[in-house]
Amino acid sequence: MSKAENRGLDSLESEIEATRERLADTIDQLAYRASPKTIARREIASLRAVYVAPDGSPRTDNMLKTAGAVVGFVALVVALRKLTR
Whose CA, among 14, 22, 29, 62, lies 20 to 30 Å from 5? Predict the structure, then answer.
């Protein structure tokens, strides 16, 4: 085997090793993103962002909208129950 062929093989081996490392990193990132604990944390953070401003103060406008929707739903259920009796 000539020196040029040997360098080509070494280069190919180092490329394969670098590709393996990138693939392992990608798999680790995907496993982290797909873990139930990570998904739950992400969902809790997004829900908290709806009701709490970045400065920590409550977002009363969103709280009132949610409360109004809940009250409206309960009123609808009560009305439907009264109609079916």
Answer: 22
